[in-house]
Amino acid sequence: MLRISNHYVSKIVFVLLFVELLVLMGSAYAGAAVRHIGSGEVLSAEHLHHFFTSAIAFATAVIFSMSAMGMYQLNFGEGTSRNSFLMQLMPSFVMGFFILTLVFYLAPDLSFGRSILLLVFAIAAAGIAVARMIFLKTSELRFLQQRIMFLGGGPLAKECSDLAGQSSRYHRYKIAGFIQTESEELCVPASNLLKMKDGDSLLSMAKKHGVEEIVVSVENRRSGLPIKELLDCKLQGVKVTDAATFFERETCQIRVDSLQPSWLVFGGGFDQSFVRTFMKRSFDLVCSATILALTFPLMLLAAIAVKLEDGGPVFYSQERVGKDGKTFRVHKFRSMRADAEKGGKPQWAAQNDPRVTRVGNFMRKTRIDELPQIVNVFKGEMSFVGPRPERPYFVEQLIEVVPYYNVRHSIKPGITGWAQVRYGYGSSAEDALQKLQYDLYYVKNNSLFLDMLILIDTLKVVLFRSGR
């Protein structure tokens, strides 16, 4: 895995994106060359320099569209993976075509010309299809697998090994085995234990089994860890990772039920510097102003539709908990019946909630109901990206049962967030725990890069109406 601005990115996906970027750039030049060869024109150095900027615009538009369609969220365990990307490729290129048309309209100097543009898209589609087929075939090869060994054989080691063994993961692992520690319940198959003879060390076992990484998955570390042996492994090029970091890397969550507080205190991340705060506020204002300008007509239609459906109020205002535990009122288009909480007791929102109106159901699926929260962003009560704000009634309950729940209040809540694009509606404390683990990952690793990824994933949720 690569780490870009504290966020873990699969090497496989990164390589795929880089290769497809080259394919798209090459397709732009190939299309122009074919067109000019046919016309007998000779391209000057000035034309080539101008065309490079146009090729960058083309490649960026298509990569963005493919990302929004989920083409870089691969699942190698799905038998239809070879065919599913072909079904996503056409709408991705259609979206890319409209984006590029808008770009060329706003910056006509970048335009290829209509005949060249169609030729470039045709070549690019063929190139991406071939590149994907080759990539999906080579991704099955064993040399892409990384051999790992687990120090521990208890519940934590089993959970980590189950995670590593999932065939659908971006990062392929070959588990060499487990080294059991004393005073730990055995939860992994005894046949998978690695027997250490007298004189053997962790380093010798790692070299014997070709291990590239050792995952320290022992819950009770007070009984003593072989620190010197682990250091020897690290000095000899064998990567040593603790279970919390392994879980964070592989799931983009922070596991809280067995988390050591020292890992949060002494680990990296949690950037609250002036530079990060300034960049995030600037990002919030630019995004909010842009989306408000683009969606204002849609917001007017939504307001009319809400009013016409049942004659009730258009907007719904509700108290939520924000940064540092301070409360504020969040604004939304009303998506439920006006008497949704007539009993007076707050209720969890759930997917397929019977209280949701027909117009409200559509708005929730497409996130239109969230748009009035742009006002909260302008007021500085929310960010565009961040943990979703929860109601005080539920916060009081969740703080009691969910460890580290208050950590999510160290930054401003957001209209969309990491948990929203990775997890569905929550209707229980267990759902809140799962979403918190995503929120903690965002709080720890938040950056402009991660904010951009979340916005792209939000667009995918809206396009596919997955209602998260």
Topology:
Layout: E1 2-4, E2 7-9, H1 11-39, H2 45-68, H3 81-106, H4 114-138, E3 146-151, H5 155-164, E4 173-179, H6 202-208, E5 213-216, H7 227-235, E6 239-242, H8 243-251, H9 261-266, H10 274-310, E7 315-321, E8 327-333, H11 358-366, H12 374-378, E9 383-385, H13 392-401, E10 414-416, H14 418-422, H15 429-445, H16 448-464
Parallel strand pairs: 3-4, 3-5, 5-6, 9-10
Antiparallel strand pairs: 1-2, 7-8
Helix pairs in contact: 1-2, 1-4, 2-3, 3-4, 5-8, 10-11
Subcellular location: Membrane
Protein name: TIGR03013 family PEP-CTERM/XrtA system glycosyltransferase
Transmembrane segments: 12-31, 51-72, 84-106, 112-135, 285-306
Explain how this protein is built.
With 468 residues, the chain is an alpha/beta fold. The chain folds into 3 domains: 2-138, no CATH class; 145-251, 3-Layer(aba) Sandwich (Rossmann fold), CATH 3.40.50; 274-464, no CATH class. 52% of the residues lie in helices and 10% in strands. The chain contains 16 helices and 10 strands. The chain has helices spanning 11-39, 45-68, 81-106, 114-138, 155-164, 202-208, 227-235, 243-251, 261-266, 274-310, 358-366, 374-378, 392-401, 418-422, 429-445, 448-464; strands at 2-4, 7-9, 146-151, 173-179, 213-216, 239-242, 315-321, 327-333, 383-385, 414-416. A 4-stranded parallel β-sheet has the order 4-3-5-6, sandwiched between helices. It has a two-stranded antiparallel ribbon with strand order 1-2. It has a two-stranded antiparallel ribbon with strand order 7-8. Strand 3 (146-151), helix 5 and strand 4 (173-179) form a beta-alpha-beta unit. It is globular and about 75 Å long. The protein starts with a strand and ends with a helix.
